[in-house]
């Protein structure tokens, strides 16, 4: 397993978000993290990236306790794509992607030929080779998101975490981006975990679903999650119905 949570408790201030939860996410799989607003999706991703601390329990990445990794070891194990819109006006896309090579360049950050090859391959993997010399201030949200994913690929980590990567995209681009993540997980052997509110995308394209139902975390294959009843309970009382047969979410009729 690439990500293992062992008896994790997460809190935001005095509020318990997750309590004594255990789960694992394997390599070569795409897993969606879902849950209602404020239930701790971002907090969990940041904890798994080493950017926040769990109140108790242990997070293991690729067989190594996260707490025992040095900053350099962590940077070569897990990459994190935030939900923030990023616009860097004076930096070419290939230079943005090259930032992912920082854990591997020498002390003055000089790129070697092998690093440049990895940057070029990362751009190609996300279909953005033609944008190498363009700047992100002249690109769409979907194109910018692909560049940030390419940067994570250039970082060459077995684990990639993304916080709501489809948040600012229209429906066709959401499916396109999730399809890209699925291909990268399967073809490149990456362990990819991303948070999303797009239940149809998650159930239709992901291998597994991790659902936060505070203070519990349920992690199941996508088909099993659809049939488990956990999603219906998630929407209980919110005026929303979920049909596991068609994987559709609808507002309940009044």
Can you tell me about this structure?
This protein has 254 residues and is α/β, with parallel strands linked by helices. The protein has a single domain, classed as Rossmann fold. It is 33% helix and 27% strand. The protein is built from nine helices and twelve strands. It has helices at residues 41-48, 71-75, 93-98, 113-125, 141-154, 171-188, 199-205, 222-228, 230-235; strands at residues 3-12, 15-25, 29-34, 56-61, 64-65, 78-81, 159-163, 191-195, 208-213, 216-221, 240-243, 248-251. A six-stranded mixed beta sheet has the order 6-7-8-3-9-10, sandwiched between helices. Strand 7, helix 6 and strand 8 form a beta-alpha-beta unit. The chain is globular. The relative contact order is 0.18. The mean pLDDT is 90.
Topology:
Layout: E1 3-12, E2 15-25, E3 29-34, H1 41-48, E4 56-61, E5 64-65, H2 71-75, E6 78-81, H3 93-98, H4 113-125, H5 141-154, E7 159-163, H6 171-188, E8 191-195, H7 199-205, E9 208-213, E10 216-221, H8 222-228, H9 230-235, E11 240-243, E12 248-251
CATH class: Alpha Beta
Secondary-structure element series: EEEHEEHEHHHEHEHEEHHEE
CATH superfamily: P-loop containing nucleotide triphosphate hydrolases
**Radius of gyration computed on alpha carbons:** 19 Å
> Strand pairing plus helix content: what structural class?
alpha/beta
DSSP, total strands: 12
Name the helicity range: 25-40%
Provide a count of the helices. 9
Mean pLDDT: 90
Number of domains: 1
Beta-strand percentage range? 25-35%
List the quaternary state of the chains: single chain
The main pleated sheet reads as: 6 strands, mixed
Strand order of the largest sheet: 6-7-8-3-9-10
Task: State the end-to-end distance.
Answer: 45 Å
In the CATH hierarchy, the architecture is 3-Layer(aba) Sandwich
